[in-house]
């Protein structure tokens, strides 16, 4: 077995808030030094994170990124989300700190700490994302293309705001889309609005969604999107 061992070193905007956050989600503090300079270390399972003092909180989660390869992402997401809810009274999906949602079938999620450092948990057997080729893309309707693009932003890149803009543009441009397609986009838009704590947009999307006349069969086809909304509401409650 190789003896090499890599340890990410992140910036730490607050030597008090950072260890409190990590300990609350199951990390063990293994080193704490405040003078002559700040240096912290935490450990959870088989990986460690070290921190040096300095920097300012980065709400975009772009201070630094660390990849954590795991056998399965669901147990890690569940444990961290439950710990956040126990510590904060809710599961934060926007702002700092936060954790991204984990939709059924997803193979990655992102945890962002109080400084804006991102820890990306990825399943070792994650399949390569396959964007539709030109032929498949040409067969999609404008709404279907918007959903495909938004899913890539949301699930692969972790860019909820960009996904929301794609859907809002589609809703504006394609007012004459089939009701079931518009309903699917609106359901997804509700999920994104809730994730970003945009209560006003979530409310307006729900109001428009309620005005669409769908058959029972068409409503049944939206169960994946509906479950995603229910899951994020559960996380926020």
From TrEMBL:
Taxonomic source organism: Tautonia plasticadhaerens
Protein name from the UniProt record: Uncharacterized protein
Lineage: Bacteria, Pseudomonadati, Planctomycetota, Planctomycetia, Isosphaerales
């Amino acid at each position: 077995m190789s003896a090499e061992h890599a340890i990410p070193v992140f910036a730490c905007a607050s030597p008090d808030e950072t260890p409190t956050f990590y300990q609350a989600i199951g990390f063990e503090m293994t080193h704490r030094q405040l003078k002559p300079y700040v240096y912290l270390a935490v450990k959870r399972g088989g990986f460690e994170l070290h921190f040096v003092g300095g920097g300012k909180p980065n709400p975009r989660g772009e201070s630094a990124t660390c990849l954590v390869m795991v056998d399965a992402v669901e147990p890690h997401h569940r444990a961290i989300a439950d710990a956040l809810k126990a510590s904060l009274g809710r599961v934060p999906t926007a702002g700092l700190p936060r954790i991204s949602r984990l939709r059924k079938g997803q193979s990655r999620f992102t945890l962002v700490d109080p400084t804006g450092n991102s820890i990306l948990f990825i399943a070792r057997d994650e399949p390569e994302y396959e964007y539709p080729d030109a032929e498949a893309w040409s067969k999609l309707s404008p709404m279907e293309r918007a959903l495909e693009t938004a899913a890539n932003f949301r699930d692969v890149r972790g860019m909820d705001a960009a996904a929301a803009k794609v859907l809002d543009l589609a809703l504006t441009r394609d007012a004459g889309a089939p009701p079931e397609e518009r309903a699917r986009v609106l359901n997804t838009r509700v999920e994104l609005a809730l994730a970003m704590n945009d209560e006003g947009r979530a409310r307006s999307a729900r109001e428009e969604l309620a005005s669409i006349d769908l058959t029972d069969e068409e409503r049944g086809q939206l169960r994946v999107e509906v479950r995603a909304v229910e899951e994020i509401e559960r996380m926020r409650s």
